[in-house]
Amino acid sequence: MMQKRIAVISAIVLGAALTFTGCPSPTSPTVPTNPKDPTTPTDYTFLFKALDGSGDVATALDTWNSGTTISDYSSDSVYANAKQIVSGTGWGTAVACIAFKDFDSGKLAEYTTLNFKIKTSDYTTVRVKVPEEEKEYALSSGVSLANGWIQMAIPLSDFIAGVTKFQPAYVNQFAIFSFGAGSMLVTDVALSGSGAVYKKAMEDKIAEAQTLLTDHTVGTEDGNVSQETHDALNSAIGDAQSFISGSISAQSAITVALKTLLLAMKDFENNIIKSVPDTLPPAPTINSANVISLLNSSGTYTDFNVQNWNPNWGQSGSITDATIAGKTIKLLDLKNYQGVAIDETNRINITGKTKLHMSIWTANGQQFSVYAISSGDEQQLLTGPITKNQWNDIVIDIATGDFTKVMQLKFTAATVSGGPENVAVGQYYLDNIYFANE
What we know:
Elements: E1 12-17, E2 45-48, E3 60-62, E4 69-73, E5 82-86, E6 95-101, E7 113-119, E8 125-130, E9 133-138, E10 143-144, E11 149-155, E12 171-179, E13 183-192, H1 199-215, H2 227-245, H3 251-270, E14 291-295, E15 318-324, E16 327-334, E17 337-341, E18 355-362, E19 369-374, E20 378-382, E21 392-397, E22 406-412, E23 426-436
Parallel strand pairs: 1-12
Antiparallel strand pairs: 1-8, 2-13, 3-6, 4-5, 5-13, 6-12, 7-11, 7-13, 8-9, 10-11, 14-23, 15-16, 16-23, 17-22, 18-21, 18-23, 19-20, 19-22
Helix pairs in contact: 1-2, 1-3, 2-3
C-alpha cells in the first residue's frame, strides 16, 4: 500500500457547542424592528445574521446526524432572528448540534476568529472542535450582553498547534454542539480577522516538503524519485514560499498555494520508489458463503488447499512466499508465464461465481493476463490498469463457460492472446485471490 506520510484530507470540520435544558422565552417579548448590537463589529463576515437571518456567505445547515431539531426563533427581545437547537440522541447520547457547511473550501483561511452569540440558563462551557482536536471554553470567558446573551470569540489559532491536521485549503464546514439534553439559542455566527494566523501552518508544511526532497533524491533505487516528481514538488514549494514571504495574500491565493503544495507532497510520496509493500491490503468483506478463496492473509475466509503455487511448467519466473506485516502472501516474479496448480486431481467447481478478485501491489509492473483453466474451458482475463506502489483491488468479470472442474490458474506477461510475452514483466505481490458471486 502506498506510503502515507500526509493524510490526503477531503475536509476539515470546525465546531463549537452549547446545550441546556431550556431556552428562556420572555413573557410578551418586544421585538425591535432593526435590532442592533454595538458589540458586533461591522467587518464581520456572517454565516447567520441576527438582523434579518441572512448571511454574507452561502451556506447550508446540518445536524451531523445528531438527531437535533433546528428551528427559527424570533421571540427574543434583543435579537430578532436566532436558531433554536433542541437536543437529539442520534450519536447514542443527548446532544444539540448545528452545523454550517458547504461554503467555499478554504474560506476559513481568511480569518483568525470564529464568533457567535449564545444564550443558556443551564450550561457553563462551550466546546469547539477541529477534527480530531476538541477545545472547551468557559462561557464566563465570553462577553456578557443584554438579556442573557454571551458573545464568544474563539481563536482559530487554538487548533493549529498540531498543524499537520489543519489544512485551510479544504475547510468547508463547522458546527456548534454540546452534550446533554436541552436546547440553546445561537445567532450572529460570523468569521473575523486576518488570515495571518495561517502563515505558521504554511511554514511548517514547507518544512515538511523540503524534508521530503532531502530524504528522497532523484534516482532509480529504493527511496528515490524521478526528476519530474522532484521538480513538481520543488515548484510547489516555491509557490508556497512566495505566499509567506510577502504580505498576507487574498483567500484565493492562500487556497491555491496550499492546495498545490499538499497535492504535490501527496504525489511525491506516491511516487517514491520502493520494491516491497509495507502494509497488507484491506481484508475482503464479501460473505464467505459466496466465496471460494485460494489466498487471503486476513483469515476472513478458509482458503482452499492449493496443490502447488509454483509448479514446473518451464517458466522463467516463480511464485514464492513473502512475509508482509507478519502475514504470508505470495510474490509473483513474472518473466513470461506462471502457473498455479489448484488441484489437478479433484478440481474445484466455480460455476455461479461471476468475479475473480485479486489484491496486487507492484513497483515495476503493469496489467497482465490471468487464465482460469478448466478441463472444459479456458478463459483469458485481464487485470486492468494497475497503479504502482499501492495495493490495487482488482475485480475481473468471469464470462459464461464450463468451469465445473477448474484445476489451474495461469498468469502471463502478454496482455493480448498470442501477443508478446514480456510486456508485463515485473514483480507482483498477491493477496486476496478468490472467486465470488456478488
